[in-house]
Amino acid sequence: MIYRTAFRMLRRIPPELVHSLALDGLALLASGRLTRAALRRACFPPGQRLRVRALGTVFPSPLGAAAGLDKGARWFTALGAIGFGFVEVGTVTPRAQEPNPPPRLRRLPADRALLNRMGFPNPGAAVVAERLRRRDGAAVVGANLGKARDTPLARAAGDYRAAAAALAALADYVVVNVSSPNTPGLRELESAELLAPLLGEVRETLAASGRPLLVKISPDLDDAAIDAIADLALAAGLDGIVAVNTTLARAGLSDPAPGEGGISGAPLKARSLAVLRRLRGRVGDRLVLVSVGGVESADDVWERVRAGATLVQAYTGFVYGGPAWPRRINRELDRRLAAAGLASIRELVGSGAPSGREDAIASGG
Ligand SMILES: Cc1cc2nc3c(=O)[nH]c(=O)nc-3n(C[C@H](O)[C@H](O)[C@H](O)COP(=O)(O)O)c2cc1C
């Protein structure tokens, strides 16, 4: 009864507030060095099976917190302590930016989904840089970069370069985000003729720091556009692709018109997997593929890794799964790897892709 009342009350509080209160609470819990170490011990299984060496870094688990969860780099230490192998902070723009006016975040529990039109609220690259400067090194952190709402597309590259210059040396990898549906015109940057020079410029900015560069793409691209970005990523010497951002598609939702914005969570699962498979077919193991969209369970992570993802991220699955969710996924993955006789999850990457070692690793338990 008490729980039911508490739950009903919680559902009345705006989801953004619940989100930030919950993460502030976790951050408080993880702020002491000893409790943080104890949390890490409890949330990452002992041994090396989940460890992934990629992008010049060692990830303690392939499961990461997707961009948007920690937009202002306030919670990456806590998220890293409760079982996320890495945290992609941002999207960060060069200067601070306010959110879009409400409504901007809605839970769609019947579909295990979220609808958001946040519009890159963040404290700006200088503040995020200051917060990253203070990190203790335990959490792997990516920096996801975007353009400001009021920057015209013709000057977008300047925004990405400024944010990259401020953050690259402080992050383990950098992502150019050209796929959020909530910044008008942003997705136009996904066309090859705009994306090629943009990536070239950011690459140049990263030359001094040597940080790996990835691009984050939308699930709403057609196959030809996905292939074009894959080819471009190879030609531009990128290190990887993050696929996918939220979708503008509404197919399969219980409420077919839930409002404006991008849908995340379970309705994105099949599309996210299809985009991953297409990318893997095109680039093989020449790029690090980071799969995101509708990941809710260890089964989902397993499937993505077999389809060719070296790393996997989640946002909505964590919101619905709660703070113990990353720990559960890590434990289940570790158990399945042990059952399959695999010493490292790296051995699973791409094993279910058409050219992979289909026979060697079937379901793993
Ligand atoms: C509330 C919310 C805010 C988000 N903000 C960002 C963002 O700032 N930058 C970005 O690249 N992706 C952002 N995303 C997209 C997620 O990183 C992820 O690509 C998408 O939600 C699909 O994963 P999921 O199904 O696990 O949620 C956001 C998603 C949500 C739900």
Largest sheet: 8 strands, parallel, barrel
Bound molecules: flavin mononucleotide
Rg from C-alpha positions? 19 Å
CATH class value: Alpha Beta
Low-confidence stretches: 356-365
Tell me the structural class: alpha/beta
Q: How many distinct helices? A: 12
In helices, the fraction of residues equals: 25-40%
Beta-strand segment tally: 15
Helices and strands in order:
Blueprint: H1 2-12, H2 15-29, H3 33-43, E1 52-54, E2 57-59, E3 63-65, H4 76-81, E4 86-92, E5 95-97, E6 105-108, E7 113-116, E8 122-124, H5 125-133, E9 140-145, H6 156-167, E10 173-177, H7 192-206, E11 213-217, H8 223-235, E12 240-243, E13 262-265, H9 269-283, E14 288-292, H10 298-306, E15 311-314, H11 316-321, H12 325-339
Parallel strand pairs: 3-4, 3-15, 4-9, 9-10, 10-11, 11-12, 12-14, 14-15
Antiparallel strand pairs: 1-2, 5-8, 6-7, 7-13
Helix pairs in contact: 5-6, 6-7, 7-8, 8-9, 10-12
The structure holds flavin mononucleotide.
List keywords for this structure.
TIM Barrel, eight-stranded parallel beta barrel, single chain, binds flavin mononucleotide, three-stranded antiparallel β-sheet, 12 helices, 38% helix, globular, alpha/beta, disordered C terminus, 365 residues
